[in-house]
């Protein structure tokens, strides 16, 4: 009976189309900037300004979620989002109950350990009953060490005056254009890679140095996918394409937010699942970044999007990534269905 209940639960879980929304972490802030794309992918584009105040923690291509966007949402759309969140809450709770029963039975059969210490934690709720956070299980020493190292990487801002940061930027150029001569650190040639202007160091902002490390890792570990995305070789492209390098910085930023890595201990579903991935792979964040970048480009093509729709594409990308991370049989980044899109 337990096995049958477990299978029925899984069938129900996988039939649900989970549309998770991580916009709350960024909905209260806006960013003011002027994007200078000059000649990106051979096309000259005009300036773009968005209102608000400068904030180093905002994505660079505009407001991923803004107060204005929230005001424009219809009541029906808001209600649909709330219903999806509520459905997700109860689905996850039921899944955890099934897993708890299975472990409880195993403990009885095997006679090992205290049952109380093995109880799974349940989602906490806000005052209005909405699910917001999960209590993560205790971290192993390996998880703690790897999470601490990742957080240290996230805290390093890009500093154009540091030699090691300059060298990393030039390394990225070598990986992107192995047959081209290295440009100066300030040159119009950087726009070919999708930087906003002639000085890439001004484009990092909230992405930090880790976003440059992510791009280098992508180029080294999945060179074929990196080159195809850099040169926009797949599908029918838009007249106004997203700038490759700046898009990569956005993905680093949003991925860190999605995984709840700024918290003392990740307490969202995807944050907890990521800790499981980190247990298996020290470079789980970098590998997940590559998956997210490839997934974003696939979403871009599927939506036939143009530059002004980039944030909508980024939102749908994170939603898809959250759904895949919630799959029960995912214990490594390589288990994600979207991982199969990457090419070495």
Automatic annotation (TrEMBL):
Chain spans, region Disordered: 37-58
Tree of life domain: Eukaryota
Biased composition, class Basic and acidic residues, residue ranges: 37-49
Annotated ranges, domain ELMO: 164-325
Family annotation (Pfam families): ELMO_CED12 (PF04727)
PANTHER family in alphabetical order: CED-12, ENGULFMENT AND CELL MOTILITY
Protein name according to UniProt: ELMO domain-containing protein A isoform X1
